[in-house]
Design brief:
By secondary structure, this protein is α+β, with helices and mostly antiparallel strands. The chain has one domain. It is 34% helix and 26% strand. α2 crosses α3. The radius of gyration is 20 Å and the shape is globular.
């Protein structure tokens, strides 16, 4: 009898694993999504976020001439009430642009939000 009960259990388990492996968006058990949600700032309420915006920025201190500031990307979360909250900054010297954009996409997916990329005309060398 134990074998008869174990077969359906294994079958259900496989179906469940396939659903999560396919990236079922409503699943909070997705390891990657949980990883990104845990790294978000504490002041950010994931249930209120409707979109994630990626902007090109230049980072530096006020003591440094603007020409020496480093190009990078700023990630902001837009809440349903229109408020913007800072999520993360990336410097282009630390990661490739494609890696940065992949991480931004993963953050948006973890938040079940739309990713808005405004960096199309941003020049990282300028």
């Amino acid at each position: 009898m134990a074998q008869r009960h174990s077969t359906p259990t294994l079958s259900k388990s496989k179906v469940s694993d396939q659903r999560f492996a396919a990236g079922h968006e409503s699943s909070p058990k997705n390891d990657i999504s949980c990883h990104f949600l845990q790294q978000l700032p504490a002041y950010l309420d994931p249930s209120k976020v409707v979109s994630v915006v990626v902007r090109g920025e230049h980072f530096g201190s006020w003591d440094t001439p603007r020409e020496q500031w480093e190009a990078g990307f700023q990630v902001m979360a837009i809440e349903s009430n229109g408020n913007e909250k800072h999520v993360k900054n990336f410097l282009s010297s630390q990661l490739s642009i494609s890696a940065i954009k992949q991480e931004c996409g993963a953050i948006a997916k973890a938040l079940s939000a739309t990713l808005i990329d405004t960096t199309i005309n941003f020049n990282v060398e300028a």
